[in-house]
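[Q] Does anyone have a clean structure-token version of this?
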Amino acid sequence: MAKKEKINKQVVIKNRKASFDYEFIDLYTAGIVLVGTEIKSLRLGKASLVDAFCYFHRGELWLKNANISEYFYGSYNNHNARRERKLLLNRKELKRLEEYVKTPGVTIVPTKLFINERGLAKVVIAPAKGKKLYDKRASLKEKDDRREMDRAMKR
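[A] Here you go.
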């Protein structure tokens, strides 16, 4: 008997606005607690991390405002699209993140939501400081310069 081959369809949802609005300090990969219809909807790529953020409540890290659309074929057991979801991290990582949050001006932002090779949903989160307007202008100018250099190299 031959083993069943898995179809490797990568699902990666990115929060592009976060890298423009925030300067990331560190990156962590966390598990996420989902219900059945949420993982099915996520495998279809029906999610968004715009306006999402993380916060601590009773020593646990929670993800708020992440939109995982309702599953089309779900019944009355379908989930709420913007419900709060618990994130799973080691105790050491949670303490380190809590220290970051205690400093003023630092928040925890989800940057990427993906399904790993084992089929588990993961979230990449980053403690981040907000960029000022002149920082945003500098990053836009840097991005344009890189694009121009790439165009010049291709010619």
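[Q] Thanks! Anything notable?
[A] The chain is about 30% helix and 30% strand.
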